[in-house]
Design brief:
Elements: H1 3-8, H2 14-45, H3 51-73, H4 87-92, H5 100-110, H6 115-118, H7 121-136, H8 139-167, H9 169-172, H10 180-187, H11 190-199, H12 201-204, E1 210-211, E2 221-227, E3 231-236, E4 242-249, E5 256-262, H13 286-295, H14 297-300, H15 304-307, E6 324-328, E7 331-334, E8 340-342, E9 344-346, E10 353-355, H16 362-368, H17 375-382
Antiparallel strand pairs: 1-2, 2-3, 3-4, 4-5, 6-7, 7-8, 9-10
Helix pairs in contact: 2-3, 3-5, 3-7, 3-8, 7-8, 8-10, 16-17
Length: 383
């Protein structure tokens, strides 16, 4: 394709420009994905001998996957300065792209199905780990923090794999064979996790209840908190993954059973079709659980007398309006996507509240609004 012709041909129709634009977008998308996979491969190669480089490469790969997903929404969105978002600059690669924080803000608006995984705290922990490694790394700190580094890397890969294999599968399906490297990276942790599991045997014996972890598959998930009558928290002692157990009354046989739900997965009805009642073998889908919890909301509250009239708030992850209840002071549970969140973010323009301290850009919300309003700027532009 002749770049000069694209830049100077003023007679080119909008339709033909869009056709060429789409071709360029696809090429750039492929380039980003190939570079992301290359960084994943480097993360594998350096895993045994240089954890510092391995973590930096993994963070770079994750950021590139975010940008690749955004390009599928609108290529202009990857420009840091929107005033520079022209086809000429895109073709010539003469622009500065957004960082991972900005990328996540964009995806919060345009890719709601992936919000919970994208915002998962493990990626923030990974970014903080990378920053610490870049600025304060030494061989001594690597040895001291090796356990934390490897566990964080494993959980980040697990969440990335969930994104690529589920919510983002349609966008990355042409790279299925190359993306098997994520599975390889997860498996390379197994020997280390096995050693950790073996070393934890004495500690695990002290726990009366142990469940199989949904992430690392070891029987090392122990009860760490009880959220009142229906919800119990479990944490894996090996990979530190949290999941919760819901006491559910089967809609078919009316028997009380226990359902285990990973914290890191936003559930849709079709994703729960393998859950069955242990008593009557009837299938249980997410809608059944949503309905049950909503109908039993009084039993979820900390104390009935204090919380019967509390104001429900919207979920900062799935954005379901009024879907969250306050389990304890400043700690919320969403009845739609089953996400836990600490604190509240409030729109400074319309005062709409969302769970999670970092789920809304409060500082700029008065001007630009939130998911439920257009802010001062939007309303005054209309007027």
């Amino acid at each position: 394709m002749d770049i000069k012709q694209i830049k100077t041909d003023s007679d080119k129709t909008t339709e033909s420009l869009n056709t060429e634009e789409q071709q360029l977008v696809n090429e750039h998308f492929k380039l980003l994905v190939h570079n992301a996979i290359d960084f994943l491969e480097k993360s594998v190669n350096y895993f045994e001998n240089d954890l510092k480089v391995s973590i930096i490469c993994l963070c770079s790969a994750f950021e590139l996957f975010l940008k690749a997903r955004i390009i599928k929404i609108d290529w202009k969105l990857i420009f840091k300065e929107q005033k520079n978002a022209t086809i000429e600059n895109f073709i010539n690669k003469e622009f500065t792209s957004i960082n991972s924080d900005k990328a996540k803000k964009i995806l919060r608006k345009h890719d709601k199905d992936s919000l919970y995984l994208i915002n998962h705290k493990v990626f923030e922990e990974l970014k903080d780990l990378r920053n610490n490694i870049i600025h304060f790394f030494s061989e001594e700190t690597q040895n001291e923090d090796k356990d934390r580094i490897i566990i964080n890397r494993y959980k980040a890969l697990y969440c990335l794999d969930k994104l690529l294999q589920n919510q983002w599968k349609e966008f990355f399906k042409d790279f299925d064979s190359e993306l098997t490297i994520v599975t390889k990276m997860l498996l390379e942790h197994k020997p280390y996790l096995q050693i950790k599991y073996d070393n934890l045997q004495d500690e695990l014996k002290s726990y009366e209840t142990k469940e199989k972890c949904n992430v690392c598959s070891f029987k090392s998930s122990v009860k760490t908190n009880i959220y009142h009558k229906l919800i119990t928290e479990f944490t894996c002692k090996v990979c530190e993954t949290m999941q919760f157990q819901i006491k559910y009354n089967c809609h078919n046989c009316k028997t009380d059973i226990l359902l285990k739900i990973p914290f890191s997965i936003k559930l849709e009805p079709q994703e729960l079709n393998t859950l069955i009642c242990t008593k009557c073998d009837d299938e249980i889908v997410a809608d059944d659980i949503h309905t049950y919890l909503a109908n039993n909301q009084k039993t979820i509250y900390v104390t009935d007398s204090d919380n019967l009239d509390q104001k429900w708030v919207s979920c900062g992850y799935c954005e379901k309006e009024g879907s969250c209840v306050e389990l304890e002071k400043d700690y919320y549970f969403c009845l739609n996507c089953f996400a836990f969140a600490s604190g509240i973010s409030k729109c400074q323009y319309c005062n709409h509240s969302f769970t999670g301290k970092d789920t809304l850009d409060e500082e700029n919300s008065y001007v630009f609004g939130c998911r439920f309003c257009e802010g001062y700027l939007g309303n005054n532009c209309h007027n």
